[in-house]
Amino acid sequence: MPPDLLARLARIVGDAHVLTDADTTAGHTVDWTGRFRGPALAVVRPGTTAEVAQVVRECAQAGVGVVPQGGNTGLVGGSVPRGGEVVCSLRRLTRLDAVDLRTGQVTAGAGVTLARLREHARAAGWDYGVDLAARDSATVGGMVATNAGGVHVLRHGPTRRQLVGVEAVLADGSVVGRLDGLEKDNTGYDLAGLLCGSEGTLGVVTAARLRLVPPAREVVVVLLAFDDLDDALDAVGHLRRDVDCLSALELFLQDGLDLVCAQLGLRAPFTGAHRAYVLAEAAAASDPTPVLAGAVDALAAVADVAVATDPEARRALWRYREAHTEAVNRLGPPHKLDVALPAGALAEFVTAVPAAVETVAPGARVWLFGHAGDGNVHVNVTGVAPDDARVTDTVLRMVAQRRGSISAEHGIGVAKRAWLHLVRSEAEIAAYRAVKDALDPRGILNPGVLLPPR
Ligand code: FAD
Ligand code: MLT
Ligand code: ZN
């Protein structure tokens, strides 16, 4: 590394935006779970796309890796340094243009948080189709980079579906992208689609042109209790069929609910204990309660029901599901395995995982919850050392045997790269490497993420 790299970076972004001391870099060098951490050469905070381009160019010339970082809420270790890279924080890129009312689109800087984006869209009579519990910190750049999913995928799809265009800085410091908002443009390769989900390994996202969705004016949430997991998953199918305005279908289990209530001091939603819970949300222009209530009445084997229509009551029901992440984290850094299963394999997988984990990590606790409507279950395991690979190996092999995905929505990061070969062929991994080598031949952008070492 040239000795003057930090001085050169400071000339680009200003002294105040090159952080090197442990106190100010601390929040950037450890991930949200506390499982992944590493030293950074510096945390650099450019304020414009041009500054991002210059920072990347300087680092490339110096042969120093760049870790793009947004809200640092990623859950696979891809947002924090591993060995002396420059962390490029995009949080100062907070451009948020007026909503285009004719197209229902908006251009947002990489550092705009999801909460701010949604507030902005709503103020203009629209809404944004992706929502997730880290909304106050997760950024547009991070959500594009991870193709974030969240609770409305069954209605609006993941981030990729909202993407009209992306502006990004490539590894050589060149700026590419289109923010012109053309809904139809088949001119060449889809760079926005390629950058989406690339986890900072192909380019640094600086802004995105996003498609908005009509706002949900009337919303109702039900929490359904079941004493049998198969009954709960059958209900998921029936609700998908019978409620055309479903906006979320989530799953959690009794031990997770107990943990959430104990950790956050919440009262349990029902007097009795049950095997599984399905949270369903319906949203429409006119009151969806009759259609959702009718569909719930037709379900067999519902042990208990809670209904919420006003915002506060809805938030209270959502809290039981959304607070799982925080409650689990309070037990110590978890191993978080975000997987998807074919519908027919989901119940058997959920039942089999705890016993399989017990064989390789006796005494570890397994917490299962997720987006039931998408076949996406979050397997969280606590009581295992951060670097213990046996739990990940066992669970991801179970997923691969059942023809599932080892990353439903969080990405591969560093947490799962060693298991990519379970679900991607040699030819596919070679194609990934060819793309990476073409766009980032010196391996400057997020080294060590997504692709296993050669
Ligand atoms: P970061 O954590 O900063 O980075 C994530 C990855 O993107 C890293 O690889 C990083 O290098 C890269 N990156 C970040 N910004 C850029 C950029 N501008 N250009 C290029 N690469 C970049 N995820 C879901 O999909 N669904 C959920 O329901 C969900 N719920 C969550 C709930 C909680 C409580 C928490 C803590 C996390 C949750 N997540 C969820 C994970 C996380 O919020 C998402 O992955 C989110 O997209 C990360 O955004 P971020 O700005 O925090 O990115
Ligand atoms: C969720 O669905 O709650 C998130 O993806 C976060 C998590 O997996 O903990
Ligand atoms: Zn999730």
CATH class of the largest domain equals Alpha Beta
The low-confidence parts are: none
Number of helices: 16
* Rg measurement, Å: 22 Å
Strand content: 15-25%
Per the principal axes of the C-alpha atoms, what is the gross shape?
globular
Helical fraction? 25-40%
Structural class: alpha+beta
DSSP E strands, number:
15
The neighbouring-strand order within the major sheet is 12-9-11-10-14-15-13
Major β-sheet, in short? Answer: 7 strands, antiparallel
CATH-derived architecture of the largest domain: 2-Layer Sandwich
Our count of domains comes out at 4
Ligand types? flavin-adenine dinucleotide, D-malate, zinc ion
Mean pLDDT: 97
The termini sit apart by 24 Å
Task: Walk me through this protein's architecture.
The protein has 454 residues and is of the alpha+beta class. The model has no long low-confidence stretch (mean pLDDT 97). Bound molecules: flavin-adenine dinucleotide, D-malate (MLT) and zinc ion (ZN). The site of zinc ion (ZN) has 3 residues, from loops. D-malate binds next to helix 13 and strand 13.
Task: List its traits.
alpha+beta, Uridine Diphospho-n-acetylenolpyruvylglucosamine Reductase, domain 2, Alpha-Beta Plaits, 4 domains, 4-stranded mixed sheet, 15 strands, binds flavin-adenine dinucleotide
